[in-house]
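Lab notes, practical 5.
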Amino acid sequence: MQKLVIGIVLPKKESDFVSGIVGEIYKKTGCESAKYFPPHITFFYDVQEVTDKLEEMVKNAIRGQTSFTLETSGVSYFDNDAWSSNPYVVYVKLTKVLELTEIRKKIFGALRKANVKFRTHEEFIPHITLAHDDVKESDFDKVYSIANSMYSGFSFKVNEIVILRQLENETWIVDRRIRLGI
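Output from the prediction step:
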């Protein structure tokens, strides 16, 4: 079974901006974990389902959901291992996340009803990851400093939910796009 993620990818302009930060972190520290994903917000990961069925489930769960705008509010980090085997996860914070929480609840219900296996964190803290898993304790201050120095606030319109699929070379691609408002 393929590795799948359900979430939201950033529009091109914002994605390029975040990818620039991730690239700079990699260049200066060697932390490469976030460069394999397009910049995104994760709802569920390690989803175990056939992509066609999953797309239909998500589409039905979010039917009638209209697009909305998300705003960022700075750089932060998770400093406990509840989110990762490595406690040093650096990310862009999001504000006004009510719509995200509601969409996640709808998809969660649909996945549970269909007995789909997946992983998620009990506490949902929507964010855009800049570095994770391979951030060494000795590099944390440098990673955090790079992210803070390059970050400038932005907002973006969310028009779709996506299903990401991992390729054999460890990179992730958008496999399916599910438009909001349909």
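Observations recorded by the TA: The two ends are 29 Å apart (CA to CA). The helical segments are 12-29, 51-61, 98-113, 140-150.
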